[in-house]
Amino acid sequence: MKVIVTGCNGLVGSALVRQCIANDNISHVFALTRKPLDEAVAKSTKVTVILHDDFSTYPPALLSQLAGAEACLWAIGGRATQFPDIETYRRVSIDYTLAGARAFQEALVPQLPEGKQFRFLFCSGKFAEWDQDKPLHFMADTRHVKGQVEKELCELADADTTKRFAVYNGRPSGILPADAGLAARATGKLYGAINVDRLAKAFIRVVVEGYKERIIENEALLTL
């Protein structure tokens, strides 16, 4: 399987690229990124690095480089507090994600062999909330935005009468770096945190095999 990975220089995205390289089910990785990747990763024969500045638009020349991709692991986003303001957070998290999903659905799905599905997995977060009017007492902006992305991605898939565009939303509780120390791992157990490489392996398994639910909660991710 050929897959697209975004957010390749971030915590989750870089782990996804590493684990895709190590996974025999993944034949090639299109690393869609603003910045060059680590030289050791970029040199892998399984990786094509595609520099892309504007994730709100996908010109034909770019989409032609992604030909043959059967899945996308979308890891652009994060928490609202990591952005300068809510408008920037919404643009990056909502607008960019949906623009990518629509572009891949329109341009890449028709190229797949008959009967093949394109699987789009969004790295969401625990407690994502679809109801935009529901009052939330903690992490409200993050949870509402991630919930809106999930909802609109599912609506995009539902509108596809061919059923060849599948959406999955992974909801990790907390993510530990690969080199997390003993103290961080112990604290992480209190809220069900998952090691980033384990998370990446779970996400890859979902796009390779599919999954019974569109929303994959943290407890399920820990078992994949």
From TrEMBL:
This is Uncharacterized protein. It comes from Chaetomium tenue.
